[in-house]
Design a protein that fits this description.
Layout lengths: L1 H28 L9 H4 L6 E6 L6 E7 L13 E5 L5 E11 L15 E5 L4 H5 L6 E2 L2 E4 L11 E13 L2 E14 L7 E7 L2 H14 L4 E2 L3
Parallel strand pairs: 9-11
Antiparallel strand pairs: 1-2, 2-3, 3-7, 4-5, 4-6, 4-8, 8-9, 9-10
């Protein structure tokens, strides 16, 4: 009996040790390059893909550049990097849904009540969150290269919903949207990119009321 107990304990220690070691190795493999990263060099990649995604008026389109696996010059190597541009856009609002549980504090605090998954407005900094600022960036161009990780045995899904908005007399009107992101499967060392796709206006109608409730200093149009 003692041999069985000791053997079981030894096996447990080996398994836990291997799990923890793999977790450390995996996190190291997904380490970010925040201080030295460059969107210019990150997107200057021979594997870059170009997309043209219609705006909702079907008369204009987003120009999209997408790298499925970021190079060493990216802010988050191995993770997808994206650039979306349109002359019709003045503000970019980026809502992210992940397969993780909801969070209630920090710069990525959950938005509204959209079920058990973690849905948040991606604003990039705690300062923006504290000042109730909802936009990821301003101007005609949006860029992102998110680096995330999770426990080795958990599959993480990260789905970005990017809305291009046009400000007219203080009201923000949506002109179109793009869905993109990645899956990080359990035990994997390579994120699986989710290619950019058209996101229909119904996605905006699902969130616009909540945005107006949570950001009373801004007016978001359902039109």
């Amino acid at each position: 009996m003692k041999k069985y107990i000791f053997g079981s304990l030894f096996l447990l220690i080996v398994v836990v040790g291997a799990y923890l070691s793999f977790g450390v190795y995996r996190n190291s493999a997904f380490s970010t390059n925040i201080e030295n990263g460059s969107y210019g060099e990150c997107l200057n990649d021979s594997a870059i893909k170009n997309y043209s995604i219609d705006l909702w008026n079907r008369e204009d389109a987003f120009d999209v550049r997408f790298v499925e696996s970021g190079n060493s010059h990216c802010f988050a190597p191995k993770f997808p990097a994206i650039e979306v541009s349109s002359s019709k856009v003045t503000h970019w609002l980026h809502i992210v849904e992940t397969s993780s549980g909801a969070q209630f504090s920090g710069k990525h605090a959950s938005l509204g009540n959209f079920g058990p998954n973690w849905v948040f407005v991606d604003v990039g900094s705690q300062e923006k969150r504290d000042s109730s600022y909802p936009f990821y960036s301003l101007g005609k161009v949006f860029r992102d290269n998110p680096g995330w990780t999770s426990a080795p045995h958990i599959t993480l899904t990260w789905n970005g919903k990017l809305f291009g908005l046009s400000e007219v007399e203080g009201v923000f009107y949506p002109v179109g949207a793009v869905s993109w992101g990645f899956n990080l499967k359990s035990w994997s060392l390579v994120p699986e990119a989710l290619s950019p796709k058209l996101l229909e206006k119904s996605a905006w109608l699902e969130v616009v009321e909540t945005l107006n409730d949570e950001y009373p200093g801004y007016v978001f149009s359902a039109e």
